[in-house]
Specification:
4-stranded antiparallel sheet; Uridine Diphospho-n-acetylenolpyruvylglucosamine Reductase, domain 3; binds flavin-adenine dinucleotide; 33% helix; globular; 11 helices; 5-stranded antiparallel sheet; 294 residues; Enolase-like, domain 1; alpha+beta; single chain; Uridine Diphospho-n-acetylenolpyruvylglucosamine Reductase, domain 2
Length: 294
């Protein structure tokens, strides 16, 4: 089928050359303004008229110095707002220190989209199926938000309000994602279920981060994507395993509990029942794989 798009209504295109100029523009034009970064979410939405065409678009992609990925022992990883999904996928330090984020990046979209799309844009877009979101939840990421008035750091658990909605104010930019150091021996797994191929969005995404010490699980974090209005931590399931020695029966119980903590919808991609069943299957698989790997 060929889709013909009508010409977009006119809008002003603003191209700030540094962060200060971007924040000044955002402070001046709070309403009817959209930020664009890689544009891999925004442009298709505009073309499909899924959102109202704004009066102006502020393009932050050309701001220098915001595409960094840096690591400092004790302070953890810092990812600038313009680091692309490809940058994450190709970063040796991410692969070494934070392998689960590397796994999520690899599971996303196509090489072309990964080359343009940013990890910051993935979470600011706030669709429940965003692959980086459950992973950043288990990594306990902090987000640095900046406006002309100053900056604030908030935990990712407070960031999402609902599908397409975050706590970002109209004059704020997400400028940095901060990932605290993980304890030695932490292992992590992200499993994405998508209907046909890697290009598809997740029908279910399960992220598990765990530490096993002397065959006991000393810590575990489980987060689920695409099965609730926002990505969620399965904290009741985590509590069942912390301080215990895993075995097949216990892992089954943990996976059942994770399935109970989601509230999926049925849509053209999968039914709510299927999604719930898959949370159980994938949580069990992720924990079992991690347990066997140590
Ligand atoms: C073919 C295709 C396949 C895809 N596959 C996947 C997939 O498998 N998994 C997945 O999760 N996603 C997928 N996506 C979605 C998309 O590529 C990602 O969400 C991408 O990370 C978005 O980043 P971006 O820089 O392109 O965001 P943009 O489109 O530029 O922006 C997205 C939203 O975030 C806001 N925004 C962006 N950056 C900031 C910032 N720094 N501060 C404040 N607000 C900001 C924008 O205003 C906009 O509302 C796919 C998209 C396409 C077109």
């Amino acid at each position: 089928m060929v889709t013909f798009y009508r010409r977009l209504p006119k809008f002003d295109y603003l191209n700030p050359s540094d962060i200060n100029e971007a924040l000044t523009l955002l402070a001046k034009y709070r309403n009817n303004t959209q930020i664009i970064s890689g544009g891999t979410d925004l442009v298709p939405k505009l073309k499909k008229r899924a959102i109202t065409v704004p009066e102006r678009i502020i393009d932050i992609k050309n701001i220098p110095g915001l595409d960094y990925i840096s690591y400092e022992k004790g302070n953890g990883l810092k990812i600038g707002a313009l680091a692309t999904i490809s940058d994450i996928e190709n970063s040796t330090v991410i692969k070494e220190k934070c392998n689960i984020l590397f796994q999520a990046a690899q599971s996303m979209a196509s090489p072309q989209v990964r080359h343009r799309g940013t990890i910051a844009g993935n979470i600011c877009n706030a669709v429940p199926s965003a692959d980086s979101a459950p992973v950043l939840l288990v990594l306990n990421a902090n987000l640095k938000l900046q406006s002309k008035k100053g900056e604030r750091i908030i935990n990712i658990a407070e960031f999402f309000k609902g599908p397409g909605e975050t706590i970002l104010k109209p004059d704020e930019l997400l400028v940095e994602i901060q990932l605290p150091d993980l304890p030695n021996g932490t292992v992590g797994k992200y499993i994405k279920l998508s209907p046909r191929r890697a290009m598809d969005l997740a029908v279910v995404g399960v992220a598990v981060l765990a530490v096993f010490e002397y065959s006991t699980c000393s810590d575990i974090r489980i987060a689920l994507g695409a099965v609730s209005p926002t990505p969620v931590r399965a904290t009741a399931a985590e509590r069942l395993l912390i301080g215990k020695k895993p075995d097949a029966r216990l892992i089954e119980k943990v996976a059942e509990s994770a399935a109970q903590s989601c509230h999926p919808i049925s849509d053209h991609r999968a039914s709510a029942e299927y999604r719930t069943d898959m949370v159980k299957v994938l949580t069990k698989r992720a924990i079992t794989d991690l347990w066997k790997s140590v």
